[in-house]
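> forwarded from #structure-qc
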């Protein structure tokens, strides 16, 4: 009998989102791909359908457009039974706050915080109709502390971490399991890859391939783990950083992050 459940993935056209799409399809999951127009998503969908025999509907729109988000989600929920939501879409950057355009700051808040919360809220009643369902949210190791020269990005991920950890407790006892994933550095594109490589060994210590992050995140979410930190070095780093005074680790991390600016 063909599986009629669907996994909805945001930010699915590249990087970790694309890897989630491939891995979910390989696990015989039907996947709904959401991303901005121009990401060659229809080609990805065709390849997944042909290789894995799953259904891969594609929706291209801007998640920060609230009216469009509501319209599209209403239409999607009417057509497909979604039992797994992967909130992957997000944006960041490194720059002095005074050198960062207001539009850039607003885009981080709109996508990382507002759109993620609204999309999740819209889908929760639908997800609860399933006997078992899952939400995976991609946070970041940056969520664990403030960082200069990134400022808004770690703050947005700290908000999302808090939101979903609270949501876990609120939904405990239901069939809906909520997991939060905290990846370290990810080489999602040539720009971030150049920045990570340029920083040397320190920046690469917690680096994992997107294939490995996706594998660990999916396995942990389906096992109903609440907190998932992919990679031994990232878990060790998190433990060690908890032992340091905030003022010290803030200066330590921010000094290293400042070095990224020369690679932008």
């Amino acid at each position: 009998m063909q599986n009629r459940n669907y996994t909805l993935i945001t930010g699915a056209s590249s990087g970790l989102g694309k890897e989630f799409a491939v891995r979910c399809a390989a696990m015989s999951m039907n996947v709904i791909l959401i991303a901005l127009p121009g990401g060659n998503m229809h080609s990805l969908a065709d390849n997944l359908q042909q290789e894995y025999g799953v259904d891969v509907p594609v929706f291209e729109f801007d998640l920060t457009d609230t009216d469009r988000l509501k319209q599209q989600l209403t239409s999607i929920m009417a057509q497909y039974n979604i039992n797994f939501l992967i909130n992957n879409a997000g944006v960041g950057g490194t720059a002095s706050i005074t050198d960062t355009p207001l539009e850039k700051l607003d885009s981080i808040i709109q996508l990382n915080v507002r759109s993620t919360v609204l999309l999740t809220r819209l889908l929760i009643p639908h997800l609860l109709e399933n006997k078992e369902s899952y939400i995976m949210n991609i946070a970041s190791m940056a969520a664990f502390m403030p960082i200069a020269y990134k400022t808004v990005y770690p703050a947005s991920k700290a908000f999302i971490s808090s939101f979903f950890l609270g949501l876990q407790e609120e939904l405990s006892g239901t069939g809906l399991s909520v997991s939060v994933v905290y990846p370290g550095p990810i080489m999602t594109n040539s720009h971030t890859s150049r920045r990570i490589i340029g920083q040397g060994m320190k920046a690469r210590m917690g680096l994992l391939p997107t294939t490995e992050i996706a594998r660990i995140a999916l396995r942990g979410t389906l096992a109903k783990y609440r907190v998932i930190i992919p990679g031994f070095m990232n878990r060790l780093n998190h433990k060690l950083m908890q032992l340091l005074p905030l003022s010290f680790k803030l200066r330590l991390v921010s000094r290293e992050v400042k070095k990224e600016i020369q690679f932008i």
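QC bot note: The two ends are 51 Å apart (CA to CA). The chain has one domain: 5-263.
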